[in-house]
TrEMBL record:
Name of this protein: D-2-hydroxyglutarate dehydrogenase
Cofactor (UniProt): FAD
UniProt xrefs under InterPro entries: FAD-bd_oxidored_4_C, FAD-bd_PCMH, FAD-bd_PCMH-like_sf, FAD-bd_PCMH_sub1, FAD-bd_PCMH_sub2, FAD-linked_Oxase-like_C, FAD-oxidored/transferase_4, Oxid_FAD_bind_N
Quaternary assembly: Homodimer.
Source organism per UniProt: Marinobacter salinus
UniProt record, GO biological process: respiratory electron transport chain
Record EC number: 1.1.99.39
Gene3D superfamilies per record: 3.30.465.10, 3.30.70.2190, 3.30.70.2740, Uridine Diphospho-n-acetylenolpyruvylglucosamine Reductase, domain 2, Vanillyl-alcohol Oxidase, Chain A, domain 4
Pfam families: FAD-oxidase_C, FAD_binding_4
FAD-binding PCMH-type domain sequence ranges: 41-220
Reaction catalysed by this enzyme: (R)-2-hydroxyglutarate + A = 2-oxoglutarate + AH2
Species classification: Bacteria, Pseudomonadati, Pseudomonadota, Gammaproteobacteria, Pseudomonadales
Length: 467
């Protein structure tokens, strides 16, 4: 089939059923829907399809199999590993028009959503019903549930609530072969062999399309209180974490470097937490449910100062103040985005974080002393975001080439520490060449065999995770 024939067939497919889907071919739409936040690979999709029903997605997959057309699933396009980028004439399947909350069961505390429901929409829905959807991150205003599940998105509350995977009660998927599967049927307990639901979570859309998800909701946390601490040394992040965790259930434990905070402050709107400068800052969040918890937190803070781990600190006195302190962490990514940084999203076992970070920092600084390294991330779960900013006077190509070298050093250290080359953003295209630093040859072979079972013609998101 030639491209015109494909487009006219897609239009026919979308016109069928009770609700008509859409096909877009305007250059601005191709550009917009063909990319994510990585902005590394120029988008070049053939067309964008916006289905309205699972049956239309199934029809699309059947058509794609018959005519060997590649399909790329696309959510809110906030991904950072090019997992939803269409750079090779693929047809993008976007879920913007499948954005309804379909059902809510208050006694089971579950909510059935179409894949295009935006994270914030789900969070607000939960709140309106006196409950809480705890998976949260800076892009919650645009990221969609289908994309979150496909990448098993984590975010800022993983230390207490886990990843997206932990909140899925059931999934409706269209496999790469074109079957519609209703996985787990929202059951709390179901030990009937392989849990296929969890194969689709984190598969980056390579096995099929998630079209609906039933998500669990939680009790709404009370009196969330934020403590920002200035730390003397990186190893103190672990000392502070251990001391607090013995007594208080933290809902978040994040960190950022002095350089990271500098960019947020320079961006405006956010104030420094205190005057004392520190090389690293930690942000702790907990439920101040009683005077006792607050007293414990203050005593722990004092102990940390006495031990020389903490230089200064501030604790929120109101919800607004807590939210303002969160801005120090949540705005880092956007404040450095205009500089198109080199990015890595790596993890190790929590206790190994200081040594791991220091080794990486030392190797980059030794070879490229003019690179500005920005560290931040979810240190409470061992996930570090390494961003490097291009020196103003360095050519883009030169920087890019040097960063490829940095990748090698970083991933060799990751491998030695038995860490992960992608803690939460996924493999997509950007981490594909480095998968073997985290996964063994045998594991990758099993992953490829699974792909073959669900998508024998390789039409769903080809070229992502592995070739
Ligand atoms: O921009 C990054 O490197 C990380 C983005 C996101 O995962 C975050 O934690 O803010
Ligand atoms: Zn993150």
């Amino acid at each position: 089939m030639n491209p015109e024939q494909i487009i006219s067939s897609l239009k026919e497919l979308m016109a069928t059923g009770e609700a008509a889907g859409k096909v877009l071919t305007d250059p601005a739409d191709l550009e917009n829907y063909g990319k994510d936040w990585t902005r590394i690979y120029p988008p070049k999709p053939l067309a964008i399809v916006l289905p309205k029903t699972t049956e239309q997605v199934q029809a699309l997959v059947q058509f794609a199999n018959e005519n060997r057309v590649a399909l790329v699933p696309s959510g809110g396009r906030t991904g950072l590993s090019a997992g939803a980028v269409a750079a090779n004439g693929e047809v993008v399947v976007a879920f913007d028009n499948m954005n309804r909350i379909l059902d809510f069961n208050a006694s089971d505390r579950i909510v059935r959503c179409q894949a295009g429901v935006v994270t914030e929409q789900l969070q607000n829905f939960a709140e309106e019903n006196g409950l809480y959807y705890p998976v949260d991150f800076a892009s919650a205003g645009s990221s969609q549930l289908g994309g979150n599940l496909s990448t098993n998105a984590g975010g800022i509350k993983v230390i207490r609530y886990g990843m997206s995977r932990d909140w899925v009660a059931g999934l409706k998927v269209v496999t790469g072969k074109g079957d519609i599967l209703d996985l787990n049927k929202d059951l709390a307990k179901n030990n009937t062999g392989y849990d296929l639901r969890h194969l689709f979570v984190g598969a980056e859309g390579t096995l099929g399309f998630i079209t609906e998800a039933t998500m669990k909701l939680s009790r709404k946390p009370d009196d969330l209180t934020v403590l920002v601490l200035g730390l003397n040394d990186l190893t103190n992040t672990m000392d502070v974490l251990q001391a607090f965790q013995k007594q208080i259930d933290l809902t978040a434990y994040e960190f950022f470097s002095h350089q990271a905070m500098g960019h947020v402050l320079a961006h405006g709107q956010v104030q420094a937490p205190f005057d004392t400068e520190a090389p690293y800052y930690a942000l702790l969040e907990f439920e101040a449910v009683s005077d006792q918890v607050m007293e414990d937190a203050m005593n722990l803070f004092e102990q940390c100062v006495e031990n020389g781990w903490v230089l200064d600190g501030v604790i929120s006195q109101s919800e607004t103040q807590a939210q303002n302190l969160w801005q120090l962490r949540e705005r880092i990514s956007e404040s450095i985005a205009p500089r198109t940084p080199y990015k890595n999203d790596i993890s190790v076992v929590v206790s190994k974080v200081p040594g791991f970070l220091q080794e990486i920092d030392a190797v980059v600084t030794e070879h490229y002393p003019d690179f500005e390294i920005i560290w931040f991330g979810h240190i409470g779960d061992g996930n570090l975001h390494l961003n490097i900013l291009k020196p103003e006077d360095m050519a883009k190509e030169d920087f890019f080439e040097k960063c490829q070298q940095v990748n090698k050093w970083v991933f060799e250290i990751v491998e030695r520490y038995q860490g992960s080359v992608s803690a939460e953003h996924g493999v997509g295209m950007t981490k594909k060449p480095y998968l073997q630093y985290t996964r063994s040859e045998a594991e990758i072979a099993y992953m490829k065999a699974i792909k073959q079972v669900f998508d024998p013609n390789g039409i769903i998101n080809p070229g992502k995770i592995f070739d």
